[in-house]
Amino acid sequence: MEFPSDLRYTKEHEWARLLDNGLVRVGVTDYAQDALGDVVYVELPDIGAKVKEEESFGEIESTKSVSDLYAPVTGKIVGCNSLLEEDPQLVNEDPYGEGWLVEVRPQVMFDETSFMTANEYRVYVEEAE
Amino acid sequence: MGVSQEAALKETALASRHRELGGKMGAFAGFQMPIQYEGTLKECRAVRQTCGIFDVSHMGTVFVRGVDASRVLQGLFTNDIEKAPVGAAQYTLLCAPDGGVIDDLIIFHLAAEDWMIIPNAANVHVVVAEIVAAKARQPGPVRLVVEDVSAEYGILALQGPRYAEVLASVLPNVSVGRFRLASFDFAGEGVLSGTGYTGSPGVEIVAPASSVTRLWDALQLPLREVGGCPAGLAARDVLRLEMGYPLWGNDIDRETSPLEAGLGWAVAFRKGDFRGAEALRAQREAGVPRMRVALLGEGRRPLRAGSVVLDAQEAEIGIIRSGGFSPLLERGIGLALVQRAKVPFSIDLRGRRVAVEVVDLPFVDLS
After folding, report:
1. Average pLDDT of chain A to the nearest whole number
2. Looking at chain B, which residue has its C-alpha nearest residue A36?
3. Portion of chain B with pLDDT greater than 70, in percent
4. Region for B362 from its dihedrals, namely left if φ exceeds 0, alpha if ψ lies in -120 to 50, beta otherwise
C-alpha cells in the first residue's frame, strides 16, 4: 500500500496536500479506498461552502457502505473534483491523483505538524489492522 | 472483529483458495465467506459479460428420500412439486402456520423417490426440523429419510453468458437447460443444475466437498481464458438485487408473507393443503397490508436497506428491505415493503430526501 511522503495524513484516513497557491487538496488514502471497496458515489459540498476541521463535509459510498468525509482543516471549499460525478471509481484507481475530493482555502495557515507523516500513518494503519 | 467471533465461524472447503486469491473474507450466516476478490464491480461485470464463479457452499444440502418423500414435501412447501418432474429443479417456500416465510429454497427432483434440498445457510437446521416434524405429523408409518450432508458437500455457481464454454472444458459431456438437472462424476458424483441467483445464464454445481474443490481448481484457467474471474457474495447480492430476487433475512422472513413479497407465484393454492395454506388463503381473501415495490433512485447514490420510504405528503409508508447500486443502470436501486395502495415518492437516506420511482422488475433487461 502506498502512502506518498509529501502528503499529510489524518486519523480519518484522509490525506491533505498543501498546494503552491496555499490551498489544501484533500482525498482519501489508499488504505481507505481499499477498505471501502468500489466507490460508486461521492457527495461533495458546493463551492463556497464553509467546512470545519474534524466535521463532516460529505459522504463517500461504496457498493457495501457509506462513510462520512471529515474536513482536515477549517476553511472554504474552492474546488470539487467534478470527474467523480461520472467516474467515482477514480477514488479507487488513483486516490492521490485523479481521485482527489476537494480543495479548501484554509482559514489559518496550514500546520503540517498537526497531521501524521507518511511513516506515522503507516504505523497507525498497521496498528488498526 | 474479535478472535472468539472468528473462531465460531465455519468455513467452506475452499477457504484457503479464497485467501490465496486475495479474497476479502467476511461473516455471512455463520460462515467466513469471500465477500469480494479484486472488486465487486469488476466481478459483477464478469458475470454479466463473460463468466464468474461463486463458492456458495455455505448453503445447505439435504437429501430427502423414500416412497413418501414427495407426498410429505408437497404438504410442507408452498409450490406444487408435481410441476417438478424427475430431472427438474423448483423454487419454493417453507412457511410457518401463520404464513411467514421460514425459508426460500431450491429443490431438486433427482429420482422418483429422491429429492435434494438447498436451504439458506442460516435455515438448514430449521428446514430439516420442519421436514422431520412433517413426517411425524403423518398418520401411520412413513417411509422417508432426511440426511443433512451440508458439512460434507459444497456448491459452486458458474454464472455468465460464457459459462457453457468454461464448463465444457471441464465437464465436456454434461449440459442442462434452465431449472433442469444432470448428474456428473468428477472425482465424486454430483448434480449440475440450471439455476443460479444472478439472472445471467449459468449453472450451480452440487457435489461432495472434495469434488467441488477439484472442480473449482479445474475451472480457474478456462474461466480466466474467457475473461472471467471468481466473484464474491457482495457481487452476488448486487446481481440478485438487479433481478429483484428476494434475499431471506432482508426481503422475506418470518414476519413477511410471500403474498406481500411478490412471491405469490410460488404459492400453489390449488394443490390442496400445505403448511401455512390456511393463513395464506385468508390473506389472499382479505388482501395483505403491505406490498413489495421496486424503487429506482434518481441518481447514483445507492439506496440502503432500512431507509424509510415516504409518500408525496412525507408520510412514512414503508421500509427499504434490500438496497444498493446497480452497475448496469448506474443508479441506486432497492426493494421495499410499503403499505398497500400507497405511492412511494422519496426515501429518507440518513436525513436526506432521495426521489425514487416505482419500476417493474427486473431492474435490468438482460435479453
Report:
1. 96
2. B39
3. 98
4. beta
